Amino acid sequence: MSACRTPRAPEAEAAKASKPKLITYRTIPPEYRDPAKLPVCDLHDLEESIRERHGRLQVALTDYMTTGALGAAALQADCSPKFLVLQLNRILTKRADGNGIVGWAGLIKGLRINPYTRTAPLPDGELPSPRGRSGAFIDFLQSHEVFGKHLHRLIETGG
Question: pTM for the complete prediction?
Fold first, then answer.
């Protein structure tokens, strides 16, 4: 008796097809294959727990990038293999300014590696909740450059 599978909706198939493929050991671009050449980051101002996590993941990713042994590296990092691959992809993410990749800084938990871009339309009138306004001010300043330049000038001069 064969198991029946419910066919996926076309939207789900399209979303799956549009997701970029994850980089793994076999698909690391040659210019980033050497972990010693990845951009470094300064951790001395961060909490001990964040530095410990970063160090553990960096050692495990260095081993994975060198040997290709995902399971062993994930055990070493005390995480799942999928999580380790996601962290690899995070450190190999292109920087928003186009200058190289994020590098080891990508292992800092909570660090935004790409700038926030508002995709929803600006709120109009009163909102029933304080939520839903993220990025609205930045979007306003970008669409009204005169105000943005004036505000920056005021901030820089302390006025």
Answer: 0.69
